[in-house]
Amino acid sequence: MGAADGRRARGFTLIELLVCLAILGFLASLALPMAEMTVQREKERELKRALWEIRDALDAYRVARENGAVLGPSDRPPYPASLQELTREVADARADRQGQTIRFLRRVPRDPFAEGAQPAELSWGLRGYQSDADNPQPGPEVYDVHSKSTAVGLNGVPLKQW
């Protein structure tokens, strides 16, 4: 009695294995772009958070200068000279707050799209107060920040314009 008497050999044929491998390869090729998009989306979320954090700190610094809490030259706009200035602890200059200090950022967040291992404060493009929004240029003060990346976001807008 041989295999012809009703007992079948168990296992996969070579064709079945090749078909399974082809299907798995196809599914993997679909998953890879989705994984790349997920990584891009997360980096864009980080960029938005960092921009909000820095811009909120710049606005808080301006308000503190206008309210007399932070002293500075009256002949220049009420913005810090550098991003690093936002992380320094300064004495509150208001008479009713003697002995208290102000700090606007714990640390400068890094641009998630910045290349290399440069310090966080150097990873951003800076815009001075007198600079045009369409062509941001650094000035003696930091009015705004933008990403230096040449990449385009998933929304189709270049990251420099965020």
TrEMBL record:
GO terms for cellular component: type II protein secretion system complex. One of its GO terms (biological process) is protein secretion by the type II secretion system. Gene3D superfamilies: Glycoprotein, Type 4 Pilin. Keywords: Membrane, Methylation, Transmembrane, Transmembrane helix. The chain crosses the membrane at residues 12-35. SUPFAM superfamilies: Pili subunits. This is General secretion pathway protein GspG. It comes from Roseateles aquatilis. The lineage of its organism: Bacteria, Pseudomonadati, Pseudomonadota, Betaproteobacteria, Burkholderiales.
